[in-house]
Amino acid sequence: MRLVVALVVGVAAELAGIGLMTTAVWLVMRAAEQPPMSALAVAIVAVRTLAVARGGLRYAERLAGHEAVLKAMVEVRGRVYESLLRRPLRGGDALTRLVSDVDALQDAVLRCLLPACVAALVGVAAVVVVPQLAIGVVIVGVVLPLVAFALADRHLRALAPLRAELADRVVTLREGAAELRAFGALDRELARTDQVVDDLAVRERRGTRPAAVLAGVAVAAQFGFAVLLLVQGAPAYVVLGSVAVLEVMVPLTGAAQKWAEVRGSVSRVREVLAAPADETRTEPLVDVTRYRRIGVVGPSGAGKSTLLRAVAHKHGAKGVLDDAHVFERTVRENVLFAKPDATQAELDRVAALVDLDVDWDAEAKLSGGQRQRLLLARALLADPDVLLLDEPVEGLTIQHGDEVLGRVLDAARGTVVLVTHRLAPLQDFDHIVVIEDGRVTQRGTHAELAATDGYYRDRWSTERIGGRSAISTSTGLGSHSSATGTNLVSVSDATGTPSRRSTVPTT
């Protein structure tokens, strides 16, 4: 509805401009004949009215059009984000769909659709009044835009591979800078990216030449048609009015070129919004409905994070995943992302649970440990039925990490799925799965797995040898003392089966 208002106001603004040009020229010509002032009064008032109306209507058209588009973009971006959650794409492509493609929709409406509709309606109205304008309207408003679109489309097809490569390289540099620096490959990747940028800039500059030529042709056609009307003996006010009409058509050449640029983005956004959820996902390897505390262990790259995503997809679970994002906003806004209407008391509660020791109104420029605690606070504030934790205390010392994790497990009201390389926190978990090469190779409790040959027993033995198996930890299953919060773990047999004793005296 807002776009319809913008269209109507835009047409009114253009007609006011054309009317102003025609009336002003007629007024000058009539005034040269020195008629009585009463013969010019209506024209004088009309010129003043149209001059004021043109400016006001043009401002109103811009205001209505931008308001309509910006409000629509908020909804579209949210829908695209939800669609990408249901059907994830690779990093560079997902970033393009969510940011660049959605931004391009603004140009598609404001610089393509709206001007084209306004020009079409004005052209029809002008041809009804002055039929000779039909040829000029067709040339400037139809033929030249079609030629501009064809040339721009061919140029952009040549640029598409370079732009896709640049998007992927930007994502790689953004997310993998630390790894590239560690292996001495950062400078090489930066140089390659610079080369892609240079190649893209050269080709884009080369593609602006046809646009400049066509713009010149449009202006030449506009004034050529005016000369033709003069030769045919048309009055001056009709000639200049016709020039004003064709002036509305001239921007369509640029609009056609812009449409060639953004139509791919429009198609990709429509594809994302129309695409069904990805039904090819495999069922989670763990049934989270049967257990309250589930541990997931395995070597790096075995598929642990993939399992968490499968659980999140099926059960709508939330938590601290390996791709969790911290926004460039305040700490408060980052935590409130999980529950926008949370009270200060709720924020303070989750901050105390995870030892989040930063000011709520500070920018979220955090260390690795602070970042993890912020993500844990956000996850606890969301209070999901299934809480997913992927190495949630990474970046903290072992003792501090176990203390924070213990409080998080105690505070979680529903099922918890914990991915970890440390086995000490898993000693009281209901169920533990070992994943190797994307498949479950062992299942059971800590005691069962520690007594069975395999990855888990080897890993547990390594922790014991390192002297880390006696770390105090809370399990959140009721064996942790509510009075002192202290649990002691000792290894009582050759297999590494733990026995737990509480420091809380019995009565």
Describe this structure in words.
By secondary structure, the protein is α/β, with parallel strands linked by helices. Helix content is 65%, strand content 8%. Helix 1 (2-32) packs antiparallel against helix 2 and helix 4 runs antiparallel to helix 5. The chain has two domains: 2-274, ABC transporter transmembrane region fold; 293-317 and 384-502, Rossmann fold, CATH 3.40.50.300. It starts with a helix and ends in a 5-residue tail after the last strand. The chain has helices spanning 2-32, 37-86, 91-129, 133-182, 186-231, 236-249, 251-274, 304-315, 331-336, 344-354, 368-382, 398-411, 446-450, 455-465, and strands spanning 293-297, 318-320, 386-390, 415-419, 431-436, 439-444, 487-491, 498-502. The chain is built from 14 helices and eight strands. A hairpin with a 6-residue loop joins strand 7 (487-491) and strand 8. The strands form two sheets. The protein has a six-stranded mixed sheet with strand order 2-3-4-1-5-6.
Keywords:
507 residues; alpha/beta; ABC transporter transmembrane region fold; Rossmann fold; 2 domains; six-stranded mixed sheet; two-stranded antiparallel ribbon; 14 helices; 8 strands; 65% helix
Second-tier CATH architecture of the largest domain:
Up-down Bundle
What fraction of the residues are assigned to beta strands by DSSP? 5-15%
* Outline type: elongated
End-to-end Cα distance, whole Å, is 74 Å
Describe the structure concisely for a colleague:
The chain has 507 residues and is α/β, with parallel strands linked by helices. The chain has helices at 2-32, 37-86, 91-129, 133-182, 186-231, 236-249, 251-274, 304-315, 331-336, 344-354, 368-382, 398-411, 446-450, 455-465, and strands at residues 293-297, 318-320, 386-390, 415-419, 431-436, 439-444, 487-491, 498-502. Strands 2-3-4-1-5-6 form a six-stranded mixed beta sheet. It has a two-stranded antiparallel sheet with strand order 7-8.
